[in-house]
Every structure is written in C-alpha cells, then in structure tokens.
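All the exercises in this workshop are built on plain-text protein records. Instead of coordinates, the fold is spelled out as a row of discrete tokens. Once this layout is familiar, the rest of the handout is easier to follow. The record below serves as our worked example for the rest of this section.
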Amino acid sequence: SVELEAEQATVEWNPELTDVHRVVEAITGCGFDVDEPSERSSAGPSIVTTVMLAQVRVDGMTCQSCVRSVTAALRATAGVLDAVVELEPQGWARVSYDPHQTDAKSVMEAIEAAGFDAALDSVTDVESDTALGSTSAIQSADFANTPDTMDGRAFGSDHATQPLLDMQGARAHSGSGEAAYSFSSNKSGETLLDSEPLDATGSHISTQFEVRGMTCSSCVAAIERGLQDREGIHSVSVSLLAQRATVQHDSNVVSDTTIAQWIEGLGFEAKSLDAVSRVSKVSLNVYGMTCASCVGMIERSVRKERGVESVSVSLALETAVIEYRPSEIGVRKLVAVVESAGFDVLVADDAKNNTQLESLQRTRDILAWRRRFVQSLFFSIPVIFLAKIASHMAWSASIVHWQVVAGLPLGSLLQLLLTTPLQFVVGGRFYANAFKALRHGNANMDVLVTTGTSLAYFFSLFMLSWSVFHGNHPRPHCFFEAPAMLITFVSLGRYLENLAKGNASAALSTLMTLTPAQATLIIYDGGRVIDEKMIPTELIQVGDHLRVFPGERIPADGTLLEGGSQVDESTVTGEALPVRKSRGMQLVAGTVNGTGSFTMAASRVGADTTLAQIVQLVEEAQTAKAPIQAYADRVAQYFAPCVLLLALLTFLGWVLVS
C-alpha cells in the first residue's frame, strides 16, 4: 500500500524468493529515491511476540460514520492492539489483540455494544515485530485472510512486511501462493513488472440479474447474505438504485438459472440478463457524407461485422442508427469501422442533448415570466395606488376626483391608461393559451384568468363610458385594479413555477456532467501493457481496463484491480469524507479520485452505471405522478367549467332578482 502524503509504502514479499535489497533496486530502477529500510528499525531490537488476529464479519454498517464507531469501540477495548474496519465490499473488521488480556468473544461483544451484528470468521496466530507495530501485522494479514480477493485465492503465510519510502507500488496475487508484484509509476502510468492473470480457469463468470421488489438496504443485505455462502458463488454485488445484482460464480458449479431461483426463494423477482440475447442500439453522428453512395458504403461496411443486427444511415440527418449484440461487438469497434470508411464519427447522446435542450428552454421560460412579472408590477402598483389609496388621502383625493370631462374622473382615466397595456400586452400570453385550449374543447386556468380579467376590464370600461355619455355618475364604479392585481399575481406564480422546474432540470444536467468526457484505456498484448490511449467515455466497453489518475472522475462502474486511493463519493452517496479504496473494492462512475492512481476493470458502462440509473430515477420522479397529484389533475378537468357555470348562474340570478 502506498501513502502519497506520507511518502511511504508497505510492500509484502516472499523471503524465500527475494529480499528487501532486491525490492529497493526494483523501486530505484523506476526512478524513485528509497531510504534503506534498515534505518527504520535501528531504534531498538525487534521483539517477536504472538498476537491473535480475529477476522469478524460486521453487518449493519452503512457509511464511514459506522466504520469510525466500530473502530473506536474496538480500540477502546482492553487488550486490543489495533483494528482495521472496512465498509466495502462486505463489511469486515480485522482485530489484533493480546490473548493474555482479551479474547475473540470480547471483540465481538464490543462490536455488538456499538449497535452492529458480529459474526466471527476466523482467529489466527500472527508473528508481529513490535518495532513495526501491530498495524503492519493487520495490513499483512489483511490480504492473507480477505475472502474478496480478485482471483479467489489468498497469499501464503510466509510473507514479510517492511515499510519503504519514496516509491509508488501495488501488489498482485499469485495463484500458486507465491507473491507476485506489479509496481506502477503514478506519473507515467506504465506497468513495470507484470502481475499474474486474475483468472486463468475460464469458468469464473459474471452474470447480471434484474431483481424486483427491493425497497431498502435491508433487502440488499438479505440477497447478499443469501447468496455469498452458496457453493460456486465468489462475490455478490447488489445495486438498490439499478435494481440489479452482479454475481461472480463458477459456471461449472452453478448456473444463472439456479442463482435466479435462489434469489426468488428469498422473496424477490429475479431474471438473468443474458448478454447473448440482449440487443443494444447506438446512434452515431457521421460527418463527411455527400451522396447516397456514402450511405451505402457505411451500411455495407457495418453489416459485414459480426454481431450487427441492423443499420440505418440518414444522409439528411447525418446519423447512423445501429442495433448490435454487445456480447459480440462493441461501440468502439463500430466507430472504428465507420471511420475506416473515411468518415468522422461521434457517438450521439440523445438523453443528454434532450436534457440540455429542455434546460435551455426552461431558462428562456424563466426569463420570459420574470420579465412579464416585472412589467405587470410596473403597471399594477400605480393602478392599486390610484384605486385604493389616493382617493382616501386628503392631498390627493381632490386630484384623483377632478373631472377631466363631465363623468370622467382623472383617477379613473389614469387607471384605464395603465390597465390597457397590462391587460392586452403583458397578459397577451394568457389570451393565446386560452384560445388554444378552447379550440381543442378544454377549459384550463388560462381560460379562467382571461375570463375574470376581461370581465372586470370591460365592465369598468362600460361603466366609465356610461358615466361620460350620461353624466349622472360623477364617480363611476370601476374595477381596473382587479385585472391588474390578478395578472400580476398569476405572472408571479408562473415565474416561481418555472424557476422550480428550472432548478430540477439544472440538477439533472449537473448529474449528467459528473461522468468525464474521456477515459484512459490500457491496451494489452499478451498480458503486457503496450499502450495507454484516451478514448471518449461512450466507447468504454465492459471488461476494459482503465487507468484513473489523481483528481480525475471515475468513468464507469467497476472493480479496482491495482493500486489504491481515496475516492470522494459525496456526489452519489452523500458521504462527506473520502472513502478508502483498495484492490477488489467497487467503484462508482462520476465519483472523484483522490491522490492515488489505480487501474480498474469496467463492469457497468453507459446506461447501466449507477449514475445513469440515478439520472433515470430523477427523470421518472419528475414525470411520474403521485396519487394525490393524479387526483388533483382529474379535479382540474372539471374545475374551470364548474367555475364558469357557477358564475353564469350567479349572473342570471342577479338579473332575475333585480
């Protein structure tokens, strides 16, 4: 393990095959300076004692706060020398303790006292050099006892541990129980020594299952507990958001049908996502086509490839829509085929483009309604002042009531002049929407707004005209303030509504931008790294090995293969503190790598990543209706007609009474 801040690394090796000096030579050959390890232990003699190492399964931890609680509880227990608690992939605590002061039962009781379930997995004797401390012993035993190693095997028990300085390194496992090493340069990204292959048997496969019925993290834990102890199962990863389970298993021992039956036996619906039968679709933007022969050339070139189901090229739209089987061909190969025909290609992301267009449209609506609200406020405030305030003030009453002509007060004339542009210019949007609704036989809120404001405006205009022509009403009853206030408040409501919708669209656009535009693909030849190439994230395929450098965002969901770092997952999980990631742990697309560099294997890409599932859930939440909202929509269908009918009946009643 490598600590960049401390400029220190801990390397495990087999003392029967090599020694510390050869390890130092390998590191200095990479271009780094190394202090002799012997200087570290010169403070005093090494005293070898027997330390017990207990490996305990901890259930119930959900975040790094839980990890800190368990760690604090263990380290506060008398006799415990040190403890390392890991949240992922399954929740483990590795505790070294003095058998003369405590035992494994006390360790489990300390975990349970912290509020978590504990199950003892193993207890082993560890020879620990007290000059180095017990933490080194735990780190050494960490890889010897972890059941979640990448290749399903463990180290032998004859490994030595020695801290070194000023180098970057990463360990790999050997299938024969011997130590194999792979040191990587954080700056150059080139593999200097090869590691053993992760799986040489060919029978260990990864199968995805669609799981329905999960509602919380307890369901996830139930599925993982129900599968991980089954014969032939190597690892289980369940995603609540994606409603999927990824199971690594031995195909010679257990089939995907049997695993699906086990999941159904736990009370959930499960279906294997057979990659052979799945057909995916990709849309490519093709540039450089000039005629129909270009279209035919692209279609013929793509159809020749194995795994292509159909291809449709549009010259006018400059697009190519291809249906293919991901198990036989990937997007990267399809892009290369079209480019080899002499055209430039970009992968079209329709979902991202549509969301960005919707966000731009929402921004225009926000600006438009804000402008209408400000304009209506500019006209309505003077109208309200003239109608409700000025006529009751001593210094302004005489001015407002001054007759311009007989029956036409100055205040009423000013209200008419201010309300007319407000009614027909600022409120013109309501008239347009109301006419569209009536043309289709509907009566919406715009119909109510235009009906109410128009009646108040034209009634006031009629009363003012009647007063002018007859002269019997020196103070005509006008209600110009009613349409002014109504249009102003409705414009404010529409502005706030679009502002809220715009914030939701902006949040969705922000989620989509979390995935980086490019990723570093590692290219192998015969098991050796020959090149590293920058590719668009749309071209990442399942199984690709990717290099992630410090400060970069993780391009896809996957498993860490080599190296280690701390990852900021706050954008996805909300966890405030960076999460330590080591080999075999799961990575989430869109999260930010810390100070370390590592290699990962992509397991879910594109629309299958956790981030894409979150975006999909947000979109569904925006479009789906809650039961109360659906009920309100049904009521709204009859609300406007009922209001208009009641208004008509009220008018007729007053006409008959008067």
